[in-house]
């Protein structure tokens, strides 16, 4: 079930204030698709896009959204109904790359971590896993309510294929997303003829030149600009649109995206990522930082008061 023409359709894109999701939102708008920009805030480049599409067709609407708050996720769909009648395409794309404030190697209660040792939650997992799962639930209910097909595009990562000790929460979250996408494959071919088909797919990008890297000096130093290639967010956005419009990218597809390349990732016996834009050269230095943290006295110990 493809949506071969997105003109006149409506999309909800979380995390569209920057990066891959902004590029996807811009691409959809260029194809005549209305877009709800759902994010905490818009970077200047995103605000410029929204401002340029305030009137006419297609339109862009900014809906301030904290994706860790479920009522705000529901509100995105209410806004879609109010502004456009319904949504056809949903991308729960907001994500974080294991920042210092929610990081496995900086335990709750230590250093810059904002995760409380008494909260029972990692914010990084709430953003990267719980938010896309809950958004998908709401999207399915929305499509069923409006009795029309829908397309849900997730953002996984090559980290779901090549785990690394440097960012274990991020790796776990992307393994979860790839598995989640594959588990919903059969939604595209419902057994009940009264149930509209819903396509759930995902992209698994390599090293993408977005604020997740560029705004994080601790991660950016892993990249050797003389050796390593970046994947552009525009390349990823193009493949996300392909997942919506192409007949052969059926539900459950996880599409790996490198520099100038894309391929469907197999569930079993997959050869793994290779080629340009799939690695960073200074991984060894980054792994050394993990051991330095563990060697520090008191790692992971929470003071009891």
From TrEMBL:
<dbReference type="Pfam" id="PF00106">
    <property type="entry name" value="adh_short"/>
</dbReference>
<protein>
    <submittedName>
        <fullName>Uncharacterized protein</fullName>
    </submittedName>
</protein>
<dbReference type="InterPro" id="IPR002347">
    <property type="entry name" value="SDR_fam"/>
</dbReference>
<keyword id="KW-0560">Oxidoreductase</keyword>
<comment type="similarity">
    <text>Belongs to the short-chain dehydrogenases/reductases (SDR) family.</text>
</comment>
<dbReference type="InterPro" id="IPR036291">
    <property type="entry name" value="NAD(P)-bd_dom_sf"/>
</dbReference>
């Amino acid at each position: 079930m493809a949506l071969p023409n997105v003109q006149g359709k409506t999309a909800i894109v979380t995390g569209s204030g920057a990066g891959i999701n902004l590029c996807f939102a811009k691409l959809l708008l260029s194809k005549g698709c209305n877009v709800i920009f759902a994010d905490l805030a818009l970077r200047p480049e995103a605000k410029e896009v929204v401002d340029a599409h305030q009137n006419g067709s297609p339109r862009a609407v900014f809906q301030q959204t904290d994706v860790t708050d479920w009522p705000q996720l529901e509100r995105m769909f209410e806004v879609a109904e109010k502004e456009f009648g319904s949504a056809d395409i949903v991308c729960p794309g907001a994500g974080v790359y294991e920042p210092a404030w929610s990081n496995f190697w900086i335990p709750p209660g230590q250093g810059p971590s904002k995760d409380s040792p008494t909260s029972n939650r990692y914010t990084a997992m709430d953003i990267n896993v719980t938010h896309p799962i809950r958004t998908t639930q709401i999207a399915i209910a929305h499509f069923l309510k409006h009795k029309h097909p829908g397309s849900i595009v997730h953002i996984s990562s090559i980290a779901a294929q090549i785990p690394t000790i440097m960012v274990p929460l991020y790796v776990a979250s992307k393994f979860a997303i790839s598995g989640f996408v594959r588990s919903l494959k059969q939604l595209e071919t419902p057994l009940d003829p009264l149930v509209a088909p819903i396509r759930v797919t995902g992209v698994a990008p390599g090293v993408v030149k977005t604020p997740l890297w560029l705004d994080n000096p601790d991660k950016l130093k892993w990249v050797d600009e003389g050796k390593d290639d970046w994947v552009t967010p525009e390349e990823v956005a193009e493949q996300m649109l392909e997942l919506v419009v192409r007949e052969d990218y059926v539900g459950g597809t996880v599409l790996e995206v490198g520099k100038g390349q894309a391929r469907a990732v197999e569930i079993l016996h997959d050869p793994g990522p290779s080629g340009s834009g799939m690695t960073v050269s200074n991984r060894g230095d980054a792994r050394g930082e993990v051991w330095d943290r563990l060697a520090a006295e008191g790692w992971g110990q929470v003071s009891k008061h």
